[in-house]
Amino acid sequence: MQFSRRAFLAATGAVAAPLLLPGCGFVGGGGGSGSGDADTLTFTTWGTDAELAGFRAAISAFQDANEGKRIELNAVPYEQMFTNIDAQLQAGNPPDVFRVPYYTFGAYAGQGQLLDLTPHLSEGVQDQFTETAWAAVQNGGSPFGLPHHTDTSAILYNADLLAAAGITDIPTTVEDAWTWDELSAVADQLKAALPAGTYPFAYNWQGNGVTRWLSLLFQADGAFLDTDQATPLIDSDAGRSAVEFSSSFFAEQWVPETDTTTSSTYAADSWFAGTVAMVWSGAFQIPDADTTADFEWGVTFAPRGVRRGGDFGGNALVATADTGKPELAAAFLEFVTAREQMQGFCQSASLLPTRPDLLDGSLAFDVRPELTDVFVGQASQVQPQDAAQVASPSMSGIIPVLQQELDAAFLGQDAATTVANMSQGIADATGA
Amino acid sequence: MPEPTAAPALAATRPAPAARPRRPRAETVAAYGLLAPNFGLLAVFVLVPLAGALLVSLQRTNGFGDGEFIGLGNYTRLVQDPVFWQALATTAGFTVVVTALSMALGLGLAVLMNSVLPARGLFRSVLILPMAVSGVATALIGVLVFDQNNGILDKLITAVGLPSVNWQSEPVPAFATIVLVTIWWRTGFNMLIYLAGLQGIGPDLHEAARLDGANAWQRFRHVTLPLLGPSSFFLVVLNVIYSFQVFDIVFVLTGGGPRNATNVLVTYAYDTGFVTRDQGYAAALGMVLLLLAAVFAVVQWRASRTRDLVE
User: Fold this and answer.
1) Do A132 and A159 belong to one domain?
2) Which of A34, A309, B164, B175 could form a disulfide with A219, with the two C-beta atoms 3.0–4.6 Å apart?
3) Which tens digits make up the pLDDT trace of B139-195?
4) Which residue in chain A has the smallest CA separation from B167?
5) Is residue A343 part of a domain?
6) Cβ distance of A264 and B257 shorter than 8 Å
7) Which portions of the sequence form the region Disordered (chain B) (predicted)?
């Protein structure tokens, strides 16, 4: 048979096109739920090496305990995670189960994208979690996920810089945490002692971490949303107090000028570089600090204002509304959040559990285990009503409002205008 | 007026339409066959998403479920949105500065590399090297250089006794960082195109100009520059469109800050679409961007007199 060059090229093109399309992401990969296999769940997550190892161990144990069942893990970079999930949800082929930060959870639950777990969970599951963690996965009074782990910010300090400034009395119990005034005095002392270009501290509110500013609001005994998760409450004395205190970080030059909420430089980078003495940070930073920091360092508690309080960070595990395997998905979520699995995961990844039966001293991080109690103690200060606000379906609209107004406040906008603008922006976002 | 007399002569030499040889059918089919995969890909990955984006831009939607059709609501909102105008002005400013500087530098370097410079092969390679680096990696290098607290540049500046520059916390220096990093990234490409253009200009023209008494500047201005018209046209269109679409460098280097000073249209659309999840409005921003790029390409096409100029 004669085969001309044109015919060859045309045939090659025709054959190659379908092969190329999946490479472009056009055809659903392993992450889609379209397999139709009733015994296989697809699970999409991002994670550090330690987190992914934890998930793989949990999956392996689940498959051993449930013969014939399979979990297909689809690990993706965090940067792509939610653009992928959104695209898959829009296209109708989402994974059965995925991992989601608490501040993003509400956006999916509020739009009917997640499975209401109420009829699928075992009796008494709620009692296995702390009240705060349970509040963070509620939407309209029903659980739409299980709280897999949490994290909250304490203060990592450079012991060398603090010692050089004569600061040796560092709180070791949550009751003794610095008050706002004491923290201010420490910052002044550091500012006077540190060389030019080195600052007392940096705050980790960059990017979506702006929710960590809410710790100061909660410490001022304030709230940004009412219990309906829609009505703004931030235009209050507590709101103004939190804005004034955080703005003073810049006015007093306690933080680098780049420590804004929209900065492309993360607070921890300045701490690792030795240009700030202290940094607000979650426990997840411990393994990095252990290997990277070339100075002596320790951890103390976040400050207290009118009351103690902190941000409820971390992630939930959720099932998608249209999964064809709700029972299997719920069983997997329960298994992964069981005591043994959660303990292994939190210890290796330096994260905090959401189960009270792991907050009794039985948890010890694999790296720097002596720091575990500081973070567990800090997490115990997070109140359920604080965590519930962050689960608002409108958080994706509220976060840019907080970023914009806080950065304006840090540049001199007065506190009253700032909270009034925040209140208006939050109302626009929630439709209240 | 030459046309009336020229036209009949031309018509007389032109073969009658009926006599024009027709292409063999097999050749036509093969041509369409070869074009079809490209047209198919273009349709699937460009035209269909474009039509989709246009539809989304007429809705209020967060991407889930059915959006609410609001006609030109997103476009009306866009006109009243100060952040949009600021992003548009920043994008336009960035485009003008980057296009002008990177093309001027590219041209200067191309002239230099086209001369009898020792080790010019090495210099050419060094200049073209940034092209091989991805935008994100380029921006990360920029972060190392311009970081206000730990960056190399501020350390060098203060080492020689000059005051440090607030590269990240002040609007003008932050804008300068994205311009400088982009120029570093793009100048090599501009140089390459100009170099190819320069090598297409025969030495006889310069020799003739020299014999006519033109000095070096006059030869460059009146011989070299006009003959680089097609290269310049190509580069202006490409640089302007690339600059309008700038995203990775801004996203990684400044995140659009401080205070939106480096927020360009694409970073604004990204934040609106994927952070705020206001996808209808983000699609409207995208359509405006498309319109601006298309209008520019058409205007430039019609206005450029030297785009097809050859020796």
Assistant:
1) no
2) A309
3) 999 999 998 877 899 889 988 988 888 888 888 999 999 999 999 999 999 999 999
4) A258
5) yes
6) yes
7) 1-22
